Amino acid sequence: MRFIPESSEKRVPCFRVLDDNGELIKGSDFQQVSKEVAVKMYSHMVTLQVMDSVLYEAQRQGRFSFYLTTIGEEAINIGSAAALSADDFILPQYREPGVLLWRGYTLQQFANQVFANKADDGKGRQMPIHYGSKKLNYITISSPIATQLPQAVGVAYSLKMEKKDACAVAYTGDGGTSEGDFHAALNFAAVMEAPVVFICRNNGWAISTNISEQFRSDGIVVKGRAYGIRSIRVDGNDALAVYTAVQAAREMAISEKRPVLVEALTYRVGHHSTSDDSTKYRTLDEIEYWKTERSPINRFRNWVERQGWWSEQEETELRSSIKKQLLQAIQVAEKTEKPAITELFSDVYDVPPSNLAEQEKQLKEIIQTYPQDYPTDVPV
Amino acid sequence: MWGIIRQKVAAGGGSPVARIRPVVSNLRNYSSAVKQMMVREALNSALDEEMSADPKVFLMGEEVGEYQGAYKISKGLLEKYGPERVLDTPITEAGFTGIGVGAAYYGLKPVVEFMTFNFSMQAIDHIINSAAKSNYMSSGQISVPIVFRGPNGAAAGVGAQHSHCYAAWYASVPGLKVLSPYSSEDARGLLKAAIRDPDPVVFLENELLYGESFPVSAEVLDSSFCLPIGKAKIEREGKDVTITAFSKIVGLSLKAAEILAKEGISAEVINLRSIRPLDRSTINASVRKTNRLVTVEEGFPQHGVGAEICASVIEESFGYLDAPVERIAGADVPMPYAANLERMAVPQVEDIVRAAKRACYRSVPMAAAA
């Protein structure tokens, strides 16, 4: 009689292409990228970082109510986005705006969303950072954790039925894997043979809950086998490793019609959100270490520069240009009118119901009768 | 008084639970031209026709395939449409509801079956936070053409966790549509409407109605038949008191109306059909005619469907009321199992009769139901 031990002697190894200094590791499985792709990846990582710092500051100044950053996880965001095709359907958690950025969502669109103005694609319906774009195949972010996981299986099933050369890609954090939906989704995906790639950003923290308090397994990668799912652990701060692994996972998912689990190890450098002060539960040294010595951006930059594809000058130019664009975008977004009052009543159903139509009419009549009591900066 | 027979269910229901069935059914003497159809068959035929008409429609749930459905509603569908369109799922309401919502986001039209709406509690986040709110939160980019269906409310002898009515729960949520059929005509027309509707629909059936037969006309049997969502049906016209009901209670209300007629009270029975949107205009028009209202439902009284109807009538037709609104609901206790206790916890015909009489200021004996 032998019990399977609760953990292995050795932890599951982590796939890497670049070492901590950005040098190619000899013998690693590496998918060569062109200069064009590498520079595009690097500049998007920088753009994401600058966007996060500028918008975070703007929130701190009280210009909008809420923000959360992706600092430290740029390689996962951009590395995975670059490995996917435009037809692959993304179901994010909320720390993956980089995927949207890669697909072409503009800085102005991001700013419009956080300011919830009338130019926002979401018509100001959702709180900040809950972006979405049907055009870019990126579902509107939903706050409850892990609900996107079984939904991704549903999307994958639809793609399979349509025989499309595309897969569903669902992101979650380490905390999200505790939700019931995670288990239901993985189990079901395997049974249904759905072409879905689950990418888990294991960044060590779920608000103040450290992974040691979140689960007792060797991270997330080992959970794949429990459901009959092929899985891999990758260094989430190595942009090339993420790119290579996600590309392979996508290929398997579509051609073999199976789910694949990718656990990307990383670190959440920023606070959980603007409602959190993480120095209350972790040390400044720890944060600083991951911010500087283990920065995914610096690591990739070293490699790109060594290829002769990037320089200090281009770096300075890029950063200042992005910052300028962002400040401009924020100004424009802040000045843009808020959504019209009509948008309160629309989209509840496909066709507006009679009670809402009636209420809207009544409200408009009251506004017309008492214009002095109605704010001038809110369009009707 | 109608006699009661206990019947052991054979292959029909899948669980060896004793069922209480009334002896007097709705069969009357019709010419052979009018067909009789069981609600079960009505639902099955509606699913079949909609799946045949639109390849995007598919059915998903526990036991819907090989087992032919826990209540045989999906009988024959697996054989006809194959495992890609009739999916047997693992036991995870959260899982398959989430999957259904995801498939709907992408453009398919799932029909998700809950073995009973009591189990939908394990998936309610997906129904409310994902399905109901998505169109609004995404500013119209994500529509969710999904139908959640299954038996709702009390059956017979199944206890607290199998007898809860969820009409009020789901009907309070903007973004959802909530329907509840009574007859076979309702079942066919409303299920077809639900499947064709681009919004998420919660479709509340009733286990005890599955085996009941109703007359169906040729129009109802046609595959294009569809009932409008949001319109109630006046099952029986009357002038003295309005009785509103949905699902199984419509049957009890009609029986109550027969009894009341013998005592000179003409009751108008409204079959709501649609809980959200509620057909306030039909209800109010009726109350303005009769001046008295009795709302009846199986579910718990607080914050129930009757509470909403009562408020609506008071808001719109206060001046027309000649008596306080009578509200009949299930007892404010988790459903007990013992048959005698269960009988006391669910509205009976006598309760409806007494309430109608109270609304008409007739004297009513204090004795409890026999």
UniProtKB/TrEMBL annotation, chain A:
It comes from the Eukaryota. This is 2-oxoisovalerate dehydrogenase subunit alpha 1.
From TrEMBL, chain B:
Pfam families: Transket_pyr, Transketolase_C. GO terms for biological process: pyruvate decarboxylation to acetyl-CoA. Transmembrane segments: none annotated. One of its GO terms (cellular component) is mitochondrial matrix. This is Pyruvate dehydrogenase E1 component subunit beta. The keyword Chaperone does not apply. InterPro entries: PDHB_mito-type, THDP-binding, Transketo_C/PFOR_II, Transketolase-like_Pyr-bd, Transketolase_C. The lineage of its organism: Eukaryota, Viridiplantae, Streptophyta, Embryophyta, Tracheophyta. It comes from Citrus sinensis.
